[in-house]
Design brief:
The protein is mostly beta strands. 8% of the residues lie in helices and 35% in strands. It has a 6-stranded mixed β-sheet, with no helix packed on it. The longest helix is centred in the last third of the chain and has 28 residues, at 1075-1102.
Length: 1434
Amino acid sequence: MAAERGARRLLSTSSFWLCCLLLLGRRAPGAAAARSGSPPQSPGSSIRTFTPFYFLVEPMDTLSIRGSSVVLNCSAYSEPSPKIEWKKDGTFLNLVSDDRRQLLPDGSLFISNVVHSKHNKPDEGYYQCVATVESLGTIVSRTAKLTVAGLPRFSSQPEHSSVYVGDSAILNCEVNADLVPFVRWEQNRQPLLLDDRVLKLPSGTLVISNTTEGDGGLYRCIVESGGPPKYSDEAELKVLPGSDVTSNLVFLKQPSSLVRIIGQSAVLPCVASGLPLPTIRWMKNEEALDTERSERLVLLAGGSLEISDVMEDDAGTYFCVADNGNETVEAQAELTVQAQPEFLKQPTNIYAHESMDIVFECEVTGKPTPTVKWVKNGDMVIPSDYFKIVKEHNLQVLGLVKSDEGFYQCIAENDVGNAQAGAQLIILEHAPATSGPLPSAPRDVVASLVSTRFIKLTWRTPASDPHGDNLTYSVFYTKEGITRERFENTSYPGEMQVTVQNLMPATVYIFRVMAHNKHGSGESSAPLRVETQPEVQLPGPAPNIRAYATSPTSITVTWETPLSGNGEIQNYKLYYMEKGTDKEQDVDVSSHSHTINGLKKYTEYSFRVVAYNKHGPGVSTQDVAFQTLSDVPSAAPQNLSLEVRNSKSIMIHWQPPPLATQNGQITGYKIRYRKASRKSDVTETLVPGTQLSQLIEGLDRGTEYNFRVAALTVNGTGPATDWLSAETFESDLDETRVPEVPSSLHVRPLVTSIVVSWTPPENQNIVVRGYAIGYGIGSPHAQTIKVDYKQRYYTIENLDPSSHYVITLKAFNNVGEGIPLYESAVTRPHTVPDPTPMMPPVGVQASILSHDTIRITWADNSLPKHQKITDSRYYTVRWKTNIPANTKYKNANATTLSYLVTGLKANTLYEFSVMVTKGRRSSTWSMTAHGTTFELVPTSPPKDVTVVSKEGKPRTIIVNWQPPSEANGKITGYIIYYSTDVNAEIHDWVIEPVVGNRLTHQIQELTLDTPYYFKIQARNSKGMGPMSEAVQFRTPKASGSAGKGSRLPDLGSDYKTPMNGNNSPHGSPTSPLDSNMLLVIIISVGVITIVVVVIIAIFCTKRTTSHQKKKRAACKSVNGSHKYKGNAKDVKPPDLWIHHERLELKPIDKSPDPNPIMTDTPIPRNSQDITPVDNSMDSNIHQRRNSYRGHESEDSMSTLAGRRGMRPKMMMPFDSQPPQPMISAHPIHSLDNPHHHLHSSSLASPARSHLYHPSSPWPIGTSMSLSDRANSTESIRNTPSTDTMPASSSQTCCTDHQDPEGATSSSYLASSQEEDSGQSLPTAHVRPSHPLKSFAVPAIPPPGPPTYDPTLPSTPLLSQQALSHHIHSMKTASIGTLGRSRPPMPVVVPSAPEVQETTRMLEDSESSYEPDELTKEMAHLEGLMKDLNAITTA
């Protein structure tokens, strides 16, 4: 044999070179690796030769039929003879206990009675032959694919036809592609002989050219694939006598595109018919083909073109042209030629010593371009620091150790096939010197020069040889902590320095030096520990890196020269990685651009570039990502199934193609179906890409139909599934009840399987959709398998030997499962005992690292105490979550005692378990460990957002929603955004916060007949999620509205007009009082009131309890003529928290929310104008815009602008009090106006009570009157940013607040009626002052209509029009208010003062927070409150 002759030639060559080396003398150890039979010899080293070890025969791709026998050939040569094993799909086959598979003496694999069914395909797959020689190594063969032909199915059958004498005819007979070799034809039930005129195409179709009368008759095709032959329908071919009548020229068969491998033959079918008879000619790439002179091109019957021994040059576009003199028709097809991998250079055998570096070379070619992987002794070589892939396909091994010895194979693979070539590596050992003295260790080894990537070592001669002129030296070095050692030799005898290159910066290396003389190697010097310098003078990042796709499988990356090159750039390294993976690849590039081919279609990749100079790699660029172009899908949809609904319709179900083969966004699916009984027109139906099922209706009764589905992208249609058939019912069966019990059930037990067979229920009038088979040891409920309604048997696999199984069978339909039928069976005993299982891992722990990552650690009791893994065992980690309940386990393998599980869902409980596998032994699963991932911000918006109008209240709407599908944690609240302009910036939208997990919210006081847009975002403890899509809602029209000229809403009988000289927008009269006179009156009344309050407070504290009624009357006379009901027992001091940050008043004991689900919120309708009181302020005020910030605390959630700073809260508890109805204290912004003062008498009216927040620029409305609150059916709104305080049921008195710089109190009218949407409202401003001085305690007025003191100063409620002051724009927002006690409150966006004013305001603000002053104010406030308590409780 040729292989044996090659082996003998290799042996003789090796012996020749060994003799030559012995004669030539000896060299220093490891000078260079010797290749192909030339081992470098050291003194006294033993002679070893390469052992011939290779495959004589390798398995080939094989097509088989069910029930037949198959032999996969494999034979390997070696002395001693190798042990042959087989792998199937990467797993070793256990041939000892297999009764169908056996190993032949030459190593071939024999499979008897091939098994193949729809649900059980144990023999089909990829096989690989593994040859092993103990103490030598292992080699693997190429992989061979075994394909088993399926059941014969005719996708088209011959039909009756007629043809004129001399014309061409075709008879279709299309079957599964793998069954075409088993198709033959019969004419009149006799075998049909094929010749030059009668041709069977590769698809099975029969072509008859130049017909004669003898061609007439009955034709049918037969498929003989092992079982009984399958016959097609018979069709009659009538041959008509010749006619002079012309007929149109048409193609009976057109060429179709096909792919062929070099060396195969290709047939391009082309058959045309017409009168006069046509002639056929072929063209390739618009050049005529001469079929008469070519040896490889043959024109077959009817005009088809056959290309034998296909070569790469045959690829291209072929045109079939039919011409009959009257007309010409043309068809084209594409021929693609592929080539199996072929080696241009195979790896060669290598001799080497330990610590040397070697390179196995391997060059391959093929189409598509093959990928190369390396295998050592049958195991995959994983690239690392010491095993590197260089120059695309070569394998470099650095710092050889003894365990590196063995057989290395280069395996090249592409879509067409695979090939392997191998070589042997022998590690030679140094034998001790036979005679003569050896040198001692070199002295004084020092690192004379240490750089980032090289170290220069120098030393002195050994003490045994002071001159050392004839000594050579070897420097051995390794990284600290690494066992692999490399070496460098001196260049000439006597040289006592070596520069070690290609080191890593900032890395510790261990060096030792050894001397050699003619007798051998001497002693080694003591180890020297040296650390390289950190990297310097390296190139910077390459600027302007860009990527763009050039095709569905290629991306071009460009960049420029680094600005800080630090010397000449030698080359670049382009790194790229598929998104979602951690496997980064690289390629060396010498220019500023590179095109990477062979990428996955429609896949995103990340790229980065590193420049190299003489010092090494520089700084990497930032990653740039780009996606390859889309293409048509490269695979058909999966899991196509048919469900017969009734006699007229069939439901089709399918799944998308595998994600890696979709090659783009699936835009739709194309369904094609036709009748199977005869050739009929194909009907097409298109469905959207999100749809995975379709009901086909309008079918014929009792008729078999064929269906196939193909996926579509924007680039076109991908491959279709195989034809799948189903037959409609003869009549509509009953499906109002479950099927009856199957009529019989039989079981046949085997060793590890049970064959179950059955017959259908006797009552055939009830629909049966399928059968459910349940089985288990002692109970049939352990596992359940569902099969199609046509199936009558099933093999239950992977059972335990010698075990008692209970089996149940139930028929089912869409109503449910029928009555079960039970049977039991005992599997046969196993002939070979199973290996003892290993102990499962213990101490499994789950450590949560992030929202999607958990680290699993465990211990292995079968390991030594130090838990060091020294064998080939590995661990399998599995995990799952119980939500949803049917979640499947996910698995991953690890070779260490820990594993990092990533890609988990946030805030989800997972359970983990571990098992250990060593060889063919495995343990059971360990005890489970549990861990819940951390929370993450919601990654999806709230869903199902709806807006409805509240019945009876057209200006109130109700917003409903559902939680986000990906909450990633406990939802702590929602934020509702709404606006009348959907295109407005988000910070211009009105904000409504919702606390907790409520799923509905009420918003009131909307403008009638106005479209609003709503968005919602959810929040958990980690932050805010995305917003939902905008939902539009138009408020209804008001019934009986007055229209545009309608009057002002009724403001009450006690309403007083604003005291200035301007008219209201609706023409209401104004007071003629002069504003200066008003200010004088206000100041006078304020001073008098303060004096009276202080006197009464002192007087009241000295009174005895016998004079309580007099004190209460005195208190009333000071605070006004307010009336109230109730006893003195009802009068209790307010129980307040004073909030230092916002000066909000909160109750300690809050009353429960009367309606936790629905809240009413009045909102502003339009922007308001600010009319400054003083003209001098116009130049100092600039407009400022504030936006909502999502990271603020819940207390500030509903504010429309981010605060300048978050100050800590300071809360002062007062005496407790029973829960009272809540009112809100809101901050208001002020203008610096010295004419405005705060009158204590304004506290008597809750409509004029305000609080000021020194750091907040938003004016907030006030509380509602007692009468309004008592009559209101709406709940009081309590938002996170609007804290509330209890209001005493009695009149609060004797309270005074002063502002040294002046403050104002603004009045807002309490009204139970709604205002027109076009009404404008003013905003009062208060000068910023000390945070503890500017607040007010609102009092509760008596029941009935509120009264207003006309003598008290107030700002106008309606916007002023007559003043010619500069108008400032203002934005509106909804801040939580109480019920409907007042019109919507405008929010002012204040103008920023100039630098000097701002500085002064900041100084005031800072000074107000001095600790001493704050303590004094607190003490002063406590004194006032004690006086207030004494008065109210006396």
